[in-house]
Amino acid sequence: MTTVTILSGGAAQGLVRGLGEPFKTQTGLSIDGEFGAVGNMADKLRAGTPADLVILTRALLAKLADETLIIPSSIEDVGRVETALAVRNRDPKVTVKTEADLREVLRSADAIYVPDTKASTAGQHVARVLDQLGIAYEVASRLKIFPNGATAMRELASSTAARPIGCTQATEIIATDGIALSGSLPPGCELVTMYTAGVTARAAHPKEAVALIALLTGADRKELRRSMGFTG
Question: What's the predicted TM-score (pTM) here?
Fold first, then answer.
């Protein structure tokens, strides 16, 4: 079967999966692609990896448009995603209202599951927050770093640590079995990222890519986006 191919940040994986059947009904095509750290996905596009559309941060998509890799007129915002905390389903949820609360929660964890701290949106933010809290060196040996948030959350779900915690984007937490969204980061440490879709300049199926963006961003899919962790 012919497929529309995506390169996307992990934040959108659950949403794209939820639209597979409606898209197939509308176009007759299936959806395939890669989901991972946004920096890595952008580099794959730059290196010539075939893709019909990308879903990345708004800032990164704007850069790709400037590089003539994305068709500017096709760009549409999908929604905002917050970086949040995660715990295993069997563990009590944590509430952090202040930077001091967050510092204590992270210091008390014996394993901290996070995505790539250099190439992923959430991972870069976690690294900055640890520096901001003054505990980067203290917790460095407890950081469990994985290529993307989805992998980090699956590893958290199966963790045998006594007091593990995860930090990545809310959409990746919600989409992972065995873990629960535990709460937002406190004021001063929060991150809300706009994710945006665009058709690539080398798209093999540009018409169908536009149709998929319409599904991703349509008003009739607002509840699906919300249930997957996106906000307006």
Answer: 0.87
